[in-house]
User: Fold these one by one.
Assistant:
Number 1:
Amino acid sequence: MSSFKDANVLLEVKDLRTHFKTDNGILKAVDGVSFTVHEGETVGLVGESGCGKSVTNLSIMRLVPSPPGKIVGGEVLYRGTDIMKLSEKELRNIRGNKISMIFQDPMTSLNPYLRISTQMIETIRLHQNMTKQEARERAITMLKLVGIPSAESRIDCYPHQFSGGMRQRVMIAMALSCNADLLIADEPTTALDVTIQAQILELIKKITEQLKTAVILITHDLGVVAGMCDKVCVMYAGRIVESALTDDLYASPAHPYTKGLIASVPKMDGNREERLFSIEGQPPNVIDLPPCCPFHPRCNRTCEVCRHAYPPVKQVGEDHYVACWLACSEEERKGALEGAENNGK
Amino acid sequence: MENKEVILSVKNLRQHFPIDGGGLFKKTIGYIRAVDGISFDVYKGETVGIVGESGCGKSTTVRSIAQLYKPTTGQVIFHGVDLCTADKDTLLKERRNIQMIFQDPYASLDPRMTVRNIILEPLRIYNKRNLLDKNYTEEELDEKVKDLMEKVGINKAFVNRYPHEFSGGQRQRIGIARALALNPEIILADEPVSALDVSIQAQILNLISDIQKEMGVTFIFIAHDLGVIQHISHRVIVMYLGKIMEISSSDELYSNPLHPYTQALLSAAPIPDPKLERTRQRIVLEGDVPSPDKERHCCYFYDRCSKRMDKCACAVPPMFDCGNNHHVACFLYDDKPVAEPADDTPTEGELKLRKKTENKAEN
């Protein structure tokens, strides 16, 4: 797979932190996430439910409901401008225009009272200087592009007249109708059947290659990631624990959590008699996490230092980063352990 | 599998749900044919997996087997008794041996009952009617609950907690404990791992195979994830639009899928291996699953099939035996030039239904 190292950086997320205030304490949904997206690249964010995948992406668009949520730190640079510092008006120029989103359930993101045409024309005219007729034509072209049969008549239908897969197609058409540079797809196929999922993934792949759109794909399905993404970030308890090019990640996962995740997927060519590898225990509660590796209670290779300090991010290969004490040298581990003990005293 | 004892036999099962036309009298204007004539046997001690897309009738099939719906026509024979026509007492007695695990562990447990009461409820009901092997005292039942909790891997000390205090995986374990309470012969598991994360899913799948090895329970296991089905089942049934498309042993089905639908389904499932994903050829099916509200006289997969022939439009394909215990409902494997329809001797209820439709057509 080609590397996107030479392409321009489109989006750079630096040390993003989003916290939610709850009755039980501060919930650190996203706690120091950094990654970059190059032009035309597809980046996958994988992790179990509650690991902060979706909140990361809502934070990028500044869509986190506040209160209770608050982006407490970090930068999101879109072509060099920090989205966090923009005014609401400047932000609207980017939202839906330069960066657009599709969600898991297409029924909740389409307005059931309005025709598809009304909703699509509204989006297009908001961002582009077009007459109603031009916008309508643009909408029809987009619907044809995503493979809606007889788009000229179907455009005047209501959302309920479409099936789940078709609705997701409409959402993709709407999201890309303003020539967005970046498409954030939040579990776009989780609600769909395998055969429809294959159709939609194929479509996203084809259309983003054609329009040269970068994609951030959020999913929990490691199979989807394998087929779609150039780069993968694995999240756990609000942080990225490992990021690598897709091939590297599957060939040589460095973090025990990534290893466990890949091993626990039942494979279609696997031996049925074998027990599945399983990661014991539950994902941690992210309220008031102690300063330690959040994965250590479930990890099969814990050492003393994992209980006392969060591991630094280490490079283990080309474009392959991991946050795990196993990747660190003996001295670093010792140093961190002593530091933590001194702090404790 | 040949010499195994048949424990459950489903014969020509149909489950049609009426569509209300609205208005004052809610006249029935049609039927959704959720399950439209399926037959299969389940052998003792095996796991039968049922796969298919949503709306193909997987869940309806197991619910009809458990008699949660009264099947429209057909037979479900268990221990030589047809459950569809059995009276209330026989049903109660036989149901003890057929238990269910449901998909959503958040919805299937009563939030106002403690774990003890949830697991104890089936035991209490059967104990009261003296249908258990002996009459248990309350203390003995409590002991049983604790054993069950240990078996499914929940701390015994949590016996007085409520479902909301547990995570999804643990709740599914409680659901499994409740299903095991009466020591059933068959457990019908309706997508028990679909709502869970991958790491938790692996835990539950391992638990289920452990239980099967230890207690010899037969499972009918529904999932839409083909990897899960391959892992857990000995035999697999592929369903589409309320019909069985293919039945085969799991290894045979995954290495040699015969039905065009199974082939498409297998090729659509994503594989967590980037090199394989990029190189393999994908059969992408056109269109969506059609609505199951019409009576069909052609192959149910005809509209979306890439290999359809003229004869597929003439009749519903019967199950063809392709050897090696591999049965497939597709005319591609028929050596006769003219389509012979499936053996479709209508049952009494079916005839009644047809008469009703005919009457309606005349009016």
Number 2:
Amino acid sequence: MKKIDFEQLKSTPNTETLSILDESGQVVNQDLMPDLSDEELTELFKQMVWSRVLNERSTKLNRQGRLGFFAPTSGEEASQIGSNFAMTTDDFILPAYRDVPQLVQHGLPLYQAFLWSRGHVDGNKYPDNFNAVPPQIIIGAQYVQTAGVALGIKKNDKKTVAYTYTGDGGTSQGDFYEGINFAGAFQAPAIFFVQNNGYAISVPREKQTAAPALSQKAVAAGIPGIQVDGMDALAVYTATKAARDWVAAGNGPVLIETLTYRYGPHTLSGDDPKRYRTSAEVDDWQRKDPLIRMRKYLTDKGIWSTDQEKVWEDEVNKQIDEAIKKTESIAPQKVSDFLKNTFIDTPPTIKAEIDAYTAKESD
Amino acid sequence: MAKLSMVKAITQGLDEEIKRDEKVLVFGEDVGRNGGVFRATDGLQDENGEDRVFDTPLAESGINGLAMGLALEGFRPVPEIQFFGFVFETMDEIAGQISRTGHRMGGSRKMPITIRAPFGGGVHTPELHADSLEGLLAQTPGLRVVIPSGPYDAKGLLASSIRSDDPVVFLEHMKLYRSFKEEIPEDSYTVPLDKADVKREGKDITLVSYGYMVQESLKAADALAKEGIEAEVVDLRTISPLDEETIINSVKKTGRAVLVQEAQNQAGVMGQVASIIAEKAILSLESPIGRVSAPDTPYPFSQAEEIWLPNKDDIIEKAKEIVNY
């Protein structure tokens, strides 16, 4: 693919996967090379390294009992970070549970992401100007909400976009289609990502649908769909940046499918990937690793080195240490606070429960 | 002042709220050009523009997802679910998403959404239009479930619901839409949420109900009065969270209670009312609590509605049984 023609993609399923950087770090598609400075390219890679380190540390912290729910992200850095890198903090993100890296890069303090993982409400207390909702647990619910946020953005005459993520399994949900269809019908500024990592927990992509590509589902809603090499951060960035420009200009929503892979289990809550995939398959995908090719590209370009990476990893580890330490100093939750937040205008029956719990909690 | 039917009072109320607050948006299936299948939004699009009153694609989850997203962008959405029997299609957006946002985000976001829907039996609809499914949502924390029993309350409760920063499910009984009229002030007014209303005073027995069953209870009270039994009729108006005080005060006064709901008996709203009375007014009771409700089957085929739905005769019979216990 040498050119992204969103207008044409509205009616024609995308049959060619967009890629820019091949597995060996060579640019194979100069026409679509993003216009990023050396600083921006290294920043993109630094965020990918950050995400990889965060994944490794989160896994360890989970095993130590210092972190709770965690959905591993390793292998998906190009898809997650590459897409988010094309957005601005004025854009509105509606993430799913694996999309914590994007949420943090969008502005959520890391310690709050950790609090969410640990099951503490303070992780989800967002300032008014933070354009985000917490990670969605119900597959697809974020898609219909994204149509609403996008319509709100349009009605408010803003030049921003709403963006959301689901996986390959998510495209089987009714809410997936309702979301893209509503956004299309209202020509609302939304970008829908499908991070196709091959499995919905254990069910392979082939069992979800007879559609040869998930991106082609966009055509049914009359919106452009594009399939991108999700192990290639430059390709994901290019597609997203072009989509964002097109969407923010008032042309309606876009769907982007990224072909990616998760190296780890579905979550750390008991999933064993050996039950449904071979180690040879994992090895194949690890040869396509998004960090390896990006590192090679930047090193060849002379703007990155293993020394720099070591320094950065140490810095990231320090940030993670500080964040996890901060979560451990947060005051425990109170039922009376939950009750206060259940309604804004507290009804009398809830008031009585607040009084009862407040008395109990002050004992 | 003009005498208006409930559906006209609702239309007028919606129009006033749209004009009062530029963030109010009214939308759903057929609510625009068509003015809604019951004409509840009749003329609102012409009057206020398509930006404020608009049709959506046909998908209930999409409609309430749209509402949630619009609320996140600062709007005050008033989506319509065309018939409440279609609520199963959108249970996640209502009970899994909108109602728990305040809790989920520690009070850092609000969901000022009023979801309107017609419901209720006796008007010969096809399956899954008339069901009384309010109990499903009455058990959902963070949600107000409001059910008016007539035109005046409908307009005032609707204004309070739309102005509320909390999510409200506002259920309009189809049989009440055009069955009678009441004097409706032309100026905007509110009727408080979370507050039951004594629709008729009496000293011998309390009839607690909501929605259309309030009208049947009032008819029953008229008939009972002719036999020397003075029934007090309590209209819950908000079925969740409940106004316990009004219920308890009435039962303490009369010493007897018959609880009336159109919904099936099992785990119904009146089970909660009975629990409140048992917990907080049992020493005032002179006889057991009586229940009048529909039988525990799915909503019946329309030709069987008459034998299935509770009515004033059932209420009279049960009230006499309780008074003469």
